Every structure is written in structure tokens, then in C-alpha cells.
Amino acid sequence: QDDQFKKVIAHAKEYGYVFQSSEIYDGLSAVYDYGQNGAELKKNIRDYWWKAMVQMHENIVGIDAAIFMHPTTWKASGHVDAFNDPLIDNKDSKKRYRADVLIEDYCAKIEAKIDKEVAKAAKRFGEAFNKEEFLSTNGRVLGYQEKINTTLSRMAKSLENEDLADVKALIEELEIADPLTGSKNWTDVKQFNLMFGTKLGASAENAMDLYLRPETAQGIFVNFLNVQKTGRMKIPFGIAQTGKAFRNEIVARQFIFRMREFEQMEMQFFIKPGTQQEWYEHWKDARLKWHLSLGMGEDNYRFHDHEKLAHYADAAADIEFKFPFGFKELEGIHSRTDFDLSQHETYSGKKLQYFDPEENKSYVPYVLETSIGLDRMFLAVFSNSLQEEELENGTTRTVLKLPSVLAPIKAAVLPLVKKDGLPEIARQIVDDLKWDFNISYDEKDAVGRRYRRQDANGTPFCITVDHDTLEDNTVTIRYRDTMEQKRVKIDDLRSIIKQEVDV
Ligand code: ATP
Fold this sequence. Notes:
CATH superfamily of the largest domain: Bira Bifunctional Protein, Domain 2
Structural class: alpha+beta
Number of strands: 23
Protein name: Glycine--tRNA ligase
Distance between the termini: 33 Å
Radius of gyration: 26 Å
Shape: globular
Strand order of the largest sheet: 3-9-10-16-13-12-11
Subcellular location: Cytoplasm
Binding site for ATP: 247-249, 257-262, 329-330, 373-376
Number of helices: 17
Number of domains: 3
Main location: cytoplasm
Largest sheet: 7 strands, mixed
Subunit structure: Homodimer.
CATH topology of the largest domain: BirA Bifunctional Protein, domain 2
Bound molecules: adenosine-5'-triphosphate
């Protein structure tokens, strides 16, 4: 598992996807830069989301609100008072951890034991193995599962009641050790606010304390009436937004899974009070379908319904994805009630109500939120796509099987040799196709090596120009995933590629 994750990180760097921020100064922890391919992949994921959420929904529109917001926003939203993580220090190592993450990691370790038992049994029973039955009847597995359930539910309850002493007691009872040193000498648990502060204004006495937004949602709430009125939107309707958010995360690890500066893709759906349950189910279902549409395997997703609810929510679930380090939250679906809009009414003194022509009355709408981290989605796609394949001839190849619609480069055009007019034809094909797709040109090294390079880069198609092309205007098109090669007309290339990469 760890090895696979290390390969993911190394590959992301080697192929220009993700670099450590300010690497020449030894980096900045939990901050990353996207390279030439990473920026394209990220953009394609963002577009894929935007298309599904905004373009395909007549009643959802997109906005782009500023990162800086009036500081009272964060009083109203509850972030100043309640956006905290429970922290615990280890007295020996002097290292600081998130108490809930220590406990969750402990549970993940037990879960890994379950996976191991399953794998062992599958091997032993072969075709006769039934996973569901094994999970529901095997005593040891049931014991592990019970331990996970009771641990997580006790943690959730303690955090909800702000009973930090019990969170510490739980860590001690489970004998959780400092992951780095193995020491079990813990301090008390304290709350720590995650927002980054900054100042607006030139002179010290007039400067205004601001926060970098820790979520994009509030930019939508404060614009609710602007959009509703100018867009003449009727409930139910949604406002979507993508953009940067900032959190002073304590557990700065797991690569781009948990960053201090990251990007969110959020949609707030405004509904009639009392209809939240049905919309909650609707959006859970719709969002899972979006994920499945990328073809990354149904078994890699699961829902996790929250027992511990944030201060603003009356129901919440995560879509979890199987990352190289186990199932973790990828997206949240939250029923936020009228909490945010009512709070903003109170703090701003402005009405944020909707006049419902059907009901002939005004009310503060309820809100359903879907919130996904773009960088986390990037990690899900990238880590799931990176594969090593044994080939028939006994060699292995590294291939990045990105969903074609998300791949940074859709096709590479390769002249078989650097002479006889082949490069000129290849260039012409690039010039023609680049109006529609990101295309690259590669003439260096033997063609087999070029294929491998494109496989590792995630390019779904290679187009090879050879001497026959001079005769009949055909080229070889090679498919990344199957390595199948076909002879096709140059004139057909556009439609062949379009069919694969369009949604
Ligand atoms: P976590 O429990 O992992 O800290 P959260 O429950 O605080 O996440 P939300 O506030 O619901 O997360 O944010 C919505 C989404 O934003 C998450 O599902 C995740 O994909 C993304 N996200 C949140 N924090 C980060 C971060 N520090 N780095 C990258 N993505 C993040």
C-alpha cells in the first residue's frame, strides 16, 4: 500500500503532474504546484464537474465569488467559533496530531486486517468464495468490525459533546502510539481554529482583520438574492462555484489529499423547507452517478453516513473513495437547512428570503450542498489510473489509464522516422487536430519507447505516420489501454478521437 502510494507521488512528479511548492527552498508543507500535465488534468476534472452540474441543469447557474469576504461572514457562518480541529501533542516527540485522525487511522489499520482476511479466504476458497457471506459470518472479521464501529461512534459522540477528555481517554484506552516514535505519552486535547488570518489596509491602526475563505460556500450564500433576482431563478435552483479555499491543516501529509491551499467544487441547492430529505437522497444518488460515469470501478466508492453532524447540518454523508491508503472522504453531501441564510440575515440585518409564487408567501429556503475537493478528486483519478501491467512477452509497462475525457493530452502524433517527409505530415496532422484537442508531437527515440512514454503520461491515442502514409493517407492509431493498433484514414482521426474523449 505504502509502496503504491510512493509510486503515485514519484510518477506525478516525473511526468509533470504535481510538484512540491517552492521545491528549491525545500518545499512548504501541504502546499503543492501543478505542472504542465497536472494543470490540464485539473482543468479537465473541473470542466467535467461544471458541465455535469451547470451546463446540464437548466436550474443551476455558476458564479465566481472573491476569496476575501467581509469578516462578519465568518462570524455568521460559525467558522470563527466552531471551525476547529481537536489537537493532541505527544510529550516525548513534541509532535502535534489531530486526535480524530489518530483514532481514524487506528480504525483503518483494523480495516486493513479485514481486507487481509478477505484476501486470504478468497485465495483459499477460489471460485467458491462469497465475500458478502464471509463478511457476515466470520467471527474474527465481525469482531474487527464491531471494534471499528464502537470506536468511531464513541469518538463522534465525544466530539459532538465537546468532551475532549473522553477523546483523550479513548486514545489511551486503544493504546494509540505516536506514529513516528511509538510513544504513548499524550497531552490533553485542545481545539484549534483552522482559518488563516490576514490584514487588509495600509496603516496598522486602520487595518481590517480578514480571513482567507476556508470554503467557497459562503460566497454563494451571500450572493443568494443577487443571483435569484437577476437570474429570475425559481426554487428549487442551484448555484455552483469552483475556487480556492484555505485551511491551516495540522495533519499535513498524504500528498494532495489534505492541503493547506486547495480547490473546492461546490453547489448549493435552494429548496422549499420540508423537502430536504428527498433532495438529500436525490443529490447523493446524482453525485455517485457522476463518479461512476468515469468508469473507475464501482467497488472503489462507498457512502459514509455521518453520525456526528456539523453545526449547520441536519443530515450528511460522504462519498468515500478507495485511495492507496484506504477508503477516505472524497465528497460531502450536506443538508444545511436554513442555517446559513438565517445566520446571514441576523448578522447583516438584510432579508434573504424567497417569495414563492406558488405558495404566495416568503421564506428562507433550505439548502442542500454538494462539496468536492478538486485536488482530492485529482488524487483519486491519478492514483486509480496508475497501473503496472505484465505483458505477454514477460516485460512490464507502466500505464496511466486516465479516463480519456480527463487525459491532459488526447493524442500524440509520431513520425516513424525523422526523414522522408514523415515529420512534415505528422506536423500537419497536429496542426489540424489541435483546434479540437490537446495534441503532442514526439519524434525522439524508437517508436516503441515513444509508445511507453505516452502510456505513462496517460495519452489515450498514439498516431503513427509511416511510409505507407505517403501512399494512401492512412496512419496507425494505437489505443493506450489495449495496445491494439488499427490502420485508419487521416481524415477519420478527428471523429475517432472525438468519440472517445467527448462526454
Ligand atoms: P476532512 O474531514 O477530510 O478534513 P471535511 O469534512 O472537513 O474534510 P468539508 O469541509 O466537507 O471537508 O469539505 C468538502 C470537501 O473539500 C471534502 O470532501 C474534500 O474533498 C475537500 N477538502 C476539505 N479539506 C481539504 C484539504 N485540506 N485539502 C484538500 N481537499 C480538502
